[in-house]
Amino acid sequence: MPLHVSSVGLEVPDDFPQKPYDAVHARVNSSPRDAVAKFEYGGAWNAVVYRFVSCARSAETFANSFRTAGPAPAQPERFIQEDALFGFFVNGLSVIESFFYGLYWIGSMIDTTSFPVRTGNDLRDIVVHTTVKQYIARFGTCPLTNAFGRIGYMNFSGKFIDADAYEKWKGGRNYLAHRSAPGRALHLNIGGGPQVEDSWLGLNISLNDQLTTTRRQWLASTLAELTNGAAIFVDSNL
C-alpha cells in the first residue's frame, strides 16, 4: 500500500521509511534555521524521496521485463531492461548520497566548526565518507552513527571501508554511468550437470529476475536504519 510523504506531497512505495523521514524533516523545520543550510538540506532531503521512487520503479520495470522476456530479448525490450538497470543503480546510489549530504547540513546547523560550509571546497568535500567521519568524531557512538555500519566503517587509520553491498552498488553505478552498457554472458546447459548462471559482463553480477529485487531490499532496509537513527539524533540535538 503506497505511503504519503507530506514534505513533498508524493505517494511512495510501502518499503520507504516514511515515518522517520517525515519526523526528521518536521524536527529540522521546527524552528528558524540559517537560510542557506535549510535550502541545501531541503534539496537533499527531497532528493532522497525522488531517487527512491525512481529506483523502485526501475527495479519493478526490470524484474517484470525479465520475467516476461527473459535475459536476451530483442529490441526494443532489451533497451527497456538496460534503461531500467541504469536508472536503478544510478538512482539507488543517489538515495544514499543525498541522505548523507542532507545529514551533513544538519550537522552544520549544530556545529559549523565540525561541519564547515564556508567555501566551494567545503561543499565539494561533502561526500558519504567525510560525513561519516565528521559525525563519529563529533558525536561518537549513538543510534545514528551505529547505523553507518550498513554502508561501511572507519578503520584504525581513519580510512572509510565500504560494506560489501554498498561497494558493489557503487561499482555498478560507476560502470554504467562512466564506462559502458555491458553485454551479457548467457549459458545453456547441455548434457546435465549444474546450470551456470547467466551474468552481466564486467560486473560479476548474476543476471536473473532477482537482480534488482534483492538490492532494493538492501536499499530500503539500509535507508530505514539510517532515517530511524537520524530521527532519534535530531530529536536530541536540534
What does this 3D model show about the protein?
By secondary structure, this protein is mainly alpha-helical. The protein has one domain. It is built from 8 helices and 7 strands. It has a 3-stranded antiparallel sheet, with no helix packed on it. A two-stranded antiparallel sheet has the order 1-2. Strands 3-4 form a two-stranded antiparallel sheet. Strand 1 (3-5) and strand 2 form a beta hairpin. Helix 2 (35-69) packs antiparallel against helix 3 (77-110) and helix 2 (35-69) packs antiparallel against helix 8.
| Secondary-structure element series | EEHHHHHHEEHEEEH
- Structural class by sheet pairing and helices: mainly alpha
What is the distance, rounded to the nearest whole angstrom, between the alpha carbons of the first and last residues?
A: 32 Å
| Beta-strand content bin | 5-15%
Average pLDDT reading: 89
So how many helices?
Answer: 8
Tally of domains: 1
How many E strands? 7
Q: Tell me roughly what share of residues is in helical segments.
A: 55-70%
**Outline, from the CA principal axes?**
globular
